[in-house]
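can u do me a favor
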């Protein structure tokens, strides 16, 4: 409901926003590059900054960087340097910011930047819980502001072709989806590398909030949102952590389709296999291959018309050729710049980032309450539970 209200109010908000921030509109005229500031120079922030400097994003200039560590700032001598986000946002030196900070601050920093009239690209997940997603999305002041999320796996040709098969009806009605993504193995040393890692207060969750937002975003992007979820999240099953590192979840859709999502950071060797069973056949995506066993006659039609009690439809075995992108993160940033400069459609609008967060939240809530969760879920209820977990946490990681 809140998202619908936000969309309805944007047209009336545009004139007010432009009056408050006229420089945002005039500065973009006749530009061929946007001036981008990167907030947060951890692993991903530095990766994005170096990618821009080496020319991977031709429509962006690294105008500013922000981090609390002076030695890290000095790695980027050609950019303006800021030790606080507020100073960068107020500096009038950038058209847009890329937020690559710890999860919880995506909301606060995103709101601050959007309210200042800047264009915003935020790393995944866009927020830790659904209610914060709604607050962040509502902070956008004008439809002229470009607000995107770093869901770079949407650029993958593998998933793009699957989406095309689904949307054109080539697969027919989907019956079952099964995604096993257990190739996220992490060692104890990984979790011990920072006190904030894999804690309710530091990350807001484990494998679902850190490693799997991309798969959960693709689940929504490809198949839409289920109507109910029953999940079993195991906390610290394989590691000395207080959050989930092993998950099995069952999804149900209103049209009768079902799904199974399995993930873990404790299995080696891991698996990444997506299987989709539909009226017109089965798709299997695994090890960089896209296999489509296409039924010559749709399953239901064959079942109703065949005189044989056990025969199955004949199939065409198809392997769909693929050409993977070399630099998917850069492609998202370039698309972000093109949306600002040329009004190109976004590959990953930030508004859609709420759905991957809701899937993760619903799986955890199902575990906490030991029950099936109906979607859309109650975001405020989950927020209160998460706050309580943060407050009551007494977790102390053992030191080697």
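np, heres the sequence
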């Amino acid at each position: 409901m809140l998202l619908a209200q936000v969309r309805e109010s944007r047209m009336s908000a545009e004139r007010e926003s432009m009056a408050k921030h006229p420089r945002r509109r005039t500065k973009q005229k006749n530009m061929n590059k946007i001036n981008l500031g990167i907030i947060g120079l951890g692993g991903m922030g530095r990766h994005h900054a170096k990618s821009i400097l080496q020319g991977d994003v031709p429509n962006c200039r690294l105008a500013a960087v922000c981090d609390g560590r002076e030695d890290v700032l000095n790695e980027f001598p050609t950019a303006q340097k800021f030790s606080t986000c507020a100073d960068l946002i107020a500096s009038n030196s950038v058209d847009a910011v890329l937020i690559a900070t710890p999860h919880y601050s995506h909301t606060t920093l995103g709101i601050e930047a959007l309210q200042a009239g800047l264009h915003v690209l935020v790393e995944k997940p866009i927020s830790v819980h659904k209610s914060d997603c709604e607050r962040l999305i509502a902070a956008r002041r004008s439809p002229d502001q470009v607000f995107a999320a770093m869901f770079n796996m949407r650029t993958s040709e593998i998933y793009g072709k699957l989406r095309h098969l689904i949307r054109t009806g080539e697969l027919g009605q989907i019956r079952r989806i099964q995604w096993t993504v257990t190739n996220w193995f992490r060692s104890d040393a990984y979790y011990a590398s920072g006190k904030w890692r894999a804690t309710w207060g530091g990350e807001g969750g484990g494998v679902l909030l850190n490693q799997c937002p991309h798969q959960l975003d693709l689940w929504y992007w490809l198949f839409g949102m289920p109507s109910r979820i029953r999940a079993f999240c195991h906390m610290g099953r394989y590691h000395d952590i207080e959050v989930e590192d092993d998950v099995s979840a069952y999804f149900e859709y209103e049209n009768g389709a079902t799904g199974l999502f399995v993930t873990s950071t404790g299995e080696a060797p891991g698996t990444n296999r997506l299987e989709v069973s539909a009226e017109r056949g089965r798709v299997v995506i695994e090890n960089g291959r896209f296999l489509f066993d296409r039924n010559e006659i749709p399953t239901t039609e064959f079942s109703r018309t065949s005189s044989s009690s056990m025969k199955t439809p004949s199939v065409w075995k198809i392997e769909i050729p693929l050409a993977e992108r070399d630099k998917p993160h850069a492609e998202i940033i370039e698309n972000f710049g093109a949306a600002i400069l040329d009004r190109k459609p976004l590959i990953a609008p930030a508004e859609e980032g709420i759905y991957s967060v809701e899937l993760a939240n619903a799986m955890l809530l199902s575990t906490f309450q030991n029950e099936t969760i109906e979607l859309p879920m109650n975001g405020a209820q989950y927020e209160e539970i998460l706050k309580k977990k943060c407050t009551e946490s007494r977790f102390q990681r053992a030191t080697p």
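Residues 34 and 60 are 5 Å apart (CA to CA). hope that helps!!
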